Amino acid sequence: MEFSEIFLETVETLNGRSRVRRVKTSFILVCGLSFMPLGVYLFIAYEMMFGGTLVMFLAPCFLIYPIIRFFFFGGKDSVAAVVTTVVVEEVTKGIIKDVLKDKSKK
Q1: Cα(21)–Cα(79) distance, rounded to whole angstroms?
Q2: Where is average pLDDT lowest: 2-11, 22-31, 88-97?
Q3: Exposed, middle or buried by CB within 10 Å (0-12, 13-18, 19+), for 29?
Q4: Which residues are CB-neighbours of 35 under 8 A, at least 6 positions away?
């Protein structure tokens, strides 16, 4: 097994005319899930702000990215998919923050 086979996969279109080489979805999701406990550990044990960055920014991006890539970009890796993921994540965080502010005022 080659090193690239662990992280990359080749996906063929339904008509079989083209192939796309992309990062495996399972690898992206495992990274996203592992960022949460790692970030908490770094933040608590070593008081590293990078741990907060992992939990607040990177973990949500890695968990949302495969969904965005599948539904909006047909499973292809692209810069547009990454940008869309970041925008969706930030809008979602903003909505959640507004809802929490409204609830705390009541």
Answers
A1: 15
A2: 2-11
A3: middle
A4: 54, 55, 58, 59, 62
Residues 6+ apart with CB under 8 A from 59: 32, 33, 35, 36, 39
- How many CB atoms are closer than 10 A to CB 99? 10
Query: What's the pLDDT tens digit per position in 14-27?
Result: 788 888 888 898 99
Task: Tell me which DSSP letter residue 29 carries.
Answer: H
**CA-to-CA distance for 58 and 39, rounded, in angstroms?**
10
What pTM did the predictor assign?
0.78
Q: Which residue in 98, 96, 95, 72 sits closest to 83, CA to CA?
A: 72
Residue ranges of alpha helices (H) inside the chain are 3-7, 25-46, 49-53, 59-73, 79-105
Give yes or no for a contact between 60 and 33, defined as CB atoms under 8 angstroms apart.
no
Instruction: Residue 16: give the domain boundaries.
Output: 3-105
Q: How many domains does the chain have?
A: 1
